[in-house]
Write a structure and sequence with these properties.
seven-stranded antiparallel beta sheet; about 160 residues
């Protein structure tokens, strides 16, 4: 009986200790992640040249991300789409609540990353919330876009066709 009481006391003590060391606030909701289900690529005239929504390419706009070899580097602004297909901008631009200070926000980092399967056709780089495509040779490859937040993907697109003409 004494062993049961001591065991119970030890468990209660550990529970109080671990919950008191947790700095999370049970009243304030945890940090919200940027929740995108698609994206659009916009040219310099803010025209949508490519749209991916819920993993599907919008073929009414274009069947692929298409660039011309003769034009050289092509730059596109990336805007993300919510579950209704609405443009929600970028993780940096979507916050309409008061800005958090560096101290409140911590050292969180949100970045855009891109990956291309065949760099012999094109190279793709992310700069801020823009994608820069450098055509290398006429052909086809695939690319994908991710939003990385503190080392994990908040958004991960499937590979989509990239055509160099």
């Amino acid at each position: 009986m004494l062993i049961k009481k001591l065991s119970l006391l030890a468990i209660l003590s550990l529970t109080v200790f671990f919950t008191s060391c947790d700095d999370s606030d049970t009243v304030t909701p945890s940090e919200e992640h940027f929740e995108a289900v698609g994206y659009v690529l916009l040219n310099d005239n803010d025209e949508v040249v490519f749209r991916l929504f819920e993993g599907q390419v919008d073929v009414t706009i274009s069947e692929s991300v298409a660039v011309n070899l003769a034009d050289g580097i092509s730059e596109y602004h990336v805007h993300f789409l919510d579950e209704d297909g609405n443009d929600i901008g970028t993780p940096e631009g979507e916050h309409d609540h008061e800005e958090e200070t560096e101290e409140e926000h911590g050292d969180e980092e949100t970045t855009l990353t891109v990956e291309v399967q065949d760099e012999g056709v094109a190279t793709v780089e992310a700069h801020e919330w823009e994608v820069e495509i450098t055509p290398v040779a006429v052909g086809s490859t695939q690319m994908k876009i991710q939003i990385l937040h503190n080392g994990h993907a908040d958004f991960n697109s499937p590979f989509v066709p990239l055509e160099v003409k």
